[in-house]
Amino acid sequence: MILSTKANLLTGERLPKIMPRNMYKYGAKWTGTDISPEQIEQAKKLALEAGMKIDFLARRAEDIDFADGTFDVITACQCIWYFAHEKTAPLFARLLKTGGKFYNQALRFNCGAEEEIKMIKSVDEKNIDIASRIHSESWQESHKSFCNPDFVAKHTPEHQKEYLVEKIRKGTALYMLFDETSRKDVGIVSITENLIEDLYILPSEQNKGYGTVLLRFACSKCKDTPTLWILENNLNAARLYRREGFSETGRRNQIDKGLDEIEFIKTAG
């Protein structure tokens, strides 16, 4: 997300015209944000190479903290998918100066075209193999440190496909996240009424905000209060869920000797 001061722009002006590369030369000052520290580091390098001075912050849009009326313009491209809009809408209104503008547009960055995209799609027989591969790779990576190697090896794409196909047959909705920039599918999630499961991101694509995107999407699809279960040793997932307004219910299931599964329910946001 980009926040800017000293950018005198017109309502309806297309977003590429107000990106830093086009407005920097006119004296606009920019602050860039992203929830991923890795993406921020990459952005810093690109800005340095382009000779642009941009202040970068690694934080959620909901946690941006500036004085009222700081910015002339706030723009959001792909990051719009990450937002908890009931929080960001009043926040952006407060941060903008009187008469300030909020611009939102989905961009296909690799070719410069301005096209609306669908990042999240349903999984069916046409793309189940891709979803199964994502599930397999992520499951094996997340379980290899505490599961028997032979047991981990059994969770092949073919094995996980059987699991996912059976879930879909029983009424579970399965979705897959497509990253427009890298042009590949990066994660999956399943929803059965209010139960969120199978939130898996490819190991190479983790810590980039994709898990947040899928989690928020899944919550929006739940018919009632979202719930989920995670292994008690999955500390990264627990941090994500707490950050997104989930709390432990106190319910536990023993998965194996010395390892429990714990239930979370969405209580805020």
TrEMBL record:
<dbReference type="InterPro" id="IPR051052">
    <property type="entry name" value="Diverse_substrate_MTase"/>
</dbReference>
<dbReference type="InterPro" id="IPR013216">
    <property type="entry name" value="Methyltransf_11"/>
</dbReference>
<keyword id="KW-0830">Ubiquinone</keyword>
<keyword id="KW-0489">Methyltransferase</keyword>
<dbReference type="InterPro" id="IPR016181">
    <property type="entry name" value="Acyl_CoA_acyltransferase"/>
</dbReference>
<dbReference type="InterPro" id="IPR029063">
    <property type="entry name" value="SAM-dependent_MTases_sf"/>
</dbReference>
<dbReference type="Pfam" id="PF13508">
    <property type="entry name" value="Acetyltransf_7"/>
</dbReference>
<keyword id="KW-0808">Transferase</keyword>
<dbReference type="GO" id="GO:0032259">
    <property type="term" value="P:methylation"/>
</dbReference>
<dbReference type="GO" id="GO:0016747">
    <property type="term" value="F:acyltransferase activity, transferring groups other than amino-acyl groups"/>
</dbReference>
<feature type="domain" description="N-acetyltransferase">
    <location>
        <begin position="118"/>
        <end position="269"/>
    </location>
</feature>
<dbReference type="InterPro" id="IPR000182">
    <property type="entry name" value="GNAT_dom"/>
</dbReference>
<dbReference type="GO" id="GO:0008757">
    <property type="term" value="F:S-adenosylmethionine-dependent methyltransferase activity"/>
</dbReference>
<comment type="similarity">
    <text>Belongs to the methyltransferase superfamily.</text>
</comment>
<protein>
    <submittedName>
        <fullName>Ubiquinone/menaquinone biosynthesis C-methylase UbiE</fullName>
    </submittedName>
</protein>
<dbReference type="Pfam" id="PF08241">
    <property type="entry name" value="Methyltransf_11"/>
</dbReference>
